[in-house]
Amino acid sequence: MTETQFTPRVFSGIQPSGNLHLGNYLGALKRFVDMQGPEFQTVYCMVDLHAITTWQDPKDLAHSTRELCAGFIAAGIDPEHSILFNQSQVPEHAQLAWVFNCVARMGWMQRMTQWKDKAGKNQQNASLGLFAYPSLMAADILIYHATHVPVGDDQKQHLELTRDIAIKFNNDFGVDFFPITEPVIEGTATRVMSLRDGSKKMSKSDTSDMSRINMTDDADAIAKKIRKAKTDPDALPSEIDGLEDRPEARNLVNIYAALNDQTAEQVLADVGGKQFGDFKPMLAELAVEKLSPISSEMARLMGEEAEIDQILARGAERARTIASPILQKTYEIVGMVGAGKS
Ligand code: TYM
């Protein structure tokens, strides 16, 4: 097999299944913005087909999709530069996912920890879509021949599976067609933890709203949540080793570092020796300074629904110009009659 050269292309997605929170912002969205530039073509998606693997009220889904689009733009994604769209407007995702359902093995899917966590003891009652979810995710990425995928730490296993699917497809059909995608899991906020429990990931499904900062929270709510965040009684250390076995302290330092584009070491060099009573107001001030402009811009954009819909439609059109030939070529490789004609 010859080495194929793939265009450097970034793909990533976020589910429109509720509030966008600080973990999504620091672990994903802010990184998406950082990757916009001459080095990569950037493709970003509101993955509504993924969202319906668990029940979504149709009105809420439409609202969350538009709000997420507003969040992307408010955070700094330029829809002229990046391709920004919702997944269901590009049918090639679901079409390639079917092919991948026939490549991926049951055993691979059964090993997915997110499947086990989300379906829990109730696997018999979970949707088939929830089980097949990682195969659709692989299709999202590979329908663009994406080479780099920025995500938070919780998506690592899904990206390994994406590589396994690409390798098996290439081997089965004797081609070098799908790239072996690089996960980009970098920075100090790859796993932002709950503000109430440093051993749990910050998540939109946590029943306690105090556990997370939502991108729509106002300044008072942000400050209150940080003031009430769980901590320990000790002062902050000056060195990173001093954060070991102090998950809540580590989380707040990491959040500060990520918001301020610093490393945790740099933050500790400044704040080492301070008590939380002093550090929390610093963090609250920084969080409000960085997040408030985003939430007010989101609110403004949400008043321009028609404009958001137009951006998504235009993004989908641009996405299809990449996705459609890749799907046709895939069908041709697989042996589907008529492939490549449309
Ligand atoms: P989702 O919608 O759960 O989360 C979107 C992104 O936010 C990251 N993230 C976090 N990062 C740091 N700390 C946290 N507490 C935290 N919580 C969430 C996630 O890692 C993710 O990067 N399966 C994906 C969506 C998806 C996708 C894709 C991603 C579908 N297709 C293709 C990349 C490529 C998901 O459910 O993310």
TrEMBL record:
One of the record's GO molecular function terms: ATP binding
Gene Ontology BP terms: tryptophanyl-tRNA aminoacylation
UniProt keyword terms in alphabetical order: Aminoacyl-tRNA synthetase, ATP-binding, Cytoplasm, Ligase, Nucleotide-binding, Protein biosynthesis
Enzyme Commission (EC) number: 6.1.1.2
InterPro entries per record: aa-tRNA-synth_I_CS (IPR001412), aa-tRNA-synth_Ic (IPR002305), Rossmann-like_a/b/a_fold (IPR014729), Trp-tRNA-ligase (IPR002306), Trp-tRNA-ligase_bac-type (IPR024109), Trp-tRNA_synthetase (IPR050203)
Catalyzed reactions per annotation: tRNA(Trp) + L-tryptophan + ATP = L-tryptophyl-tRNA(Trp) + AMP + diphosphate + H(+)
Subunit structure: Homodimer.
Protein known as: Tryptophan--tRNA ligase
